[in-house]
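Problem 12. The chain below contains 99 residues. Write out its predicted structure in token notation.
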Amino acid sequence: MSYRLLSVAESELAEAAAWYEAQAPGLGGEFLDEFVATMARVDRFPEAWARVGVRHRRCLFRRFPYAVIYSHDGTDVTVAGVVDLRRDPVRSKRRTEAS
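Solution.
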């Protein structure tokens, strides 16, 4: 299964990686590695993660307080967001309902 990131998810991923890199050298790369590991779990078990909205699911990062919000059609995964779980959860909910 392949995946693609919507532009908003791409921006969120880059912004979070840059923030972590500013906190400690190398931490941004570790964050990106964790994103890849999270997507590997989604790839293996796309139906396993909690539903958020009608078409979307949420898979939590293991190390960082983030989650991937995604949908899948059996072939491809579309990442709608890379969400900081410390922020307002209503913002994430609105995104899953709108897409």
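Discussion. Residues 2-98 form a domain with the YaeB-like fold fold (CATH 3.30.2310.20). Students who got a different answer should revisit the alignment rule from Section 12.3.
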